[in-house]
Design a protein that fits this description.
The protein has one domain: Vaccinia Virus protein VP39 (Rossmann fold). The chain is built from nine helices and nine strands. β4, α8 and β5 form a beta-alpha-beta unit. The protein has about 240 residues and is α/β, with parallel strands linked by helices. α8 packs across α9. The chain has a seven-stranded mixed beta sheet with strand order 3-2-1-4-5-9-8. A two-stranded antiparallel ribbon has the order 6-7. Helices cover about 40% and strands about 20% of the residues. It binds S-adenosylmethionine. S-adenosylmethionine binds next to α2 and α8.
Length: about 240
């Protein structure tokens, strides 16, 4: 991951965003993210979305963490910001049919992911997929998820949208369930690229406490150590 500040790249990304915003004055920021990523998918490819998607570490990384948090095949799991299912596929495979929920800001990303997964696995496991909106969130809630995981997603959310991102995740938790949110952690909020930011844990803790005042909130490393002042951290919210 290139994390050093690069003024030329920053200016290119800023110009691209201003141009898009002028053409789309009322659209939500998430549409910008989808536009930029889909352009990359159709062009030279994107490392996390579409046919070129590869895990940063292991394909089973998300599943391994969920198992550490007590996941059983009978549990309902939400992959919040599932993208092209590059980490979700192992979770789908592990769970009993109908227990996996993958949600994202667009159907385009998970539909690209489905194209790369054995149809027999999809047929057998019947994963549930949906675009994040009030109706989908209500359906997910009705399935009483025990674990809600959000991997490589928090970093893609601009500060003004973090409140609704954390609020949506907390809204899926019932008694005894846990949310695990991966984020790149820095001492101050820092822009990493045109579409990614690192956050101080205090910012996420404050938002989590506002939405879940009675929850147990903690942090743990996703991997040990830091690079360029950035740690890979998990925010854990237990209700
Ligand atoms: C780098 S991809 C990671 C996808 C998947 N979690 C993985 O690790 O393969 C980031 C994902 O976050 C999603 N995303 C961006 N903003 C979001 C938001 N506000 N709420 C939910 N998902 C979001 C994107 O659509 C995209 O699928």
């Amino acid at each position: 991951m290139a994390n050093k500040f690069n003024a030329k790249r920053w200016w290119r990304a800023t110009k691209r965003y201003i141009g898009w915003r002028l053409r789309n004055p009322l659209a939500p920021y998430e549409n910008y993210y989808v536009d930029v990523v889909m352009r990359k998918v159709r062009g030279s490819g994107h490392p996390a979305i579409g046919p070129n998607a590869r895990p940063v570490r292991e394909q089973s990384e998300l599943l391994d963490f969920l198992i550490r948090f007590g996941l059983k095949p009978t549990d309902v799991v939400v992959d919040y910001g599932c993208g092209s299912l590059r980490l979700g596929e192992s979770v789908i495979n592990y769970l009993e049919p109908g227990k996996y929920w993958g949600v994202d800001i667009t159907h385009e990303f998970y539909e690209l992911g489905l194209q790369g997964i054995d149809p027999a696995l999809i047929g057998a496991k019947q994963p549930k997929l949906g675009v994040i909106n009030a109706e989908t969130l209500a359906k997910v809630r009705a399935d009483k998820p025990r674990l809600v995981a959000s991997w490589h997603v928090c970093s893609k959310v601009p500060e003004a949208r973090l409140d609704s991102y954390i609020g949506n995740i907390v809204s899926l938790l019932g008694a005894g369930s846990t949310a695990i949110i991966h984020f790149p952690e820095t001492a101050e909020r820092r822009q990493l690229s045109g579409l990614a930011w690192a956050s101080p844990r205090a910012l996420l803790e404050k938002l989590a406490r506002q939405h879940a005042p009675k929850a147990e909130i903690s942090f743990q490393p996703l991997v040990e150590g830091e690079a360029d002042g950035i740690r890979q951290t998990l925010l854990v919210i237990r209700t």
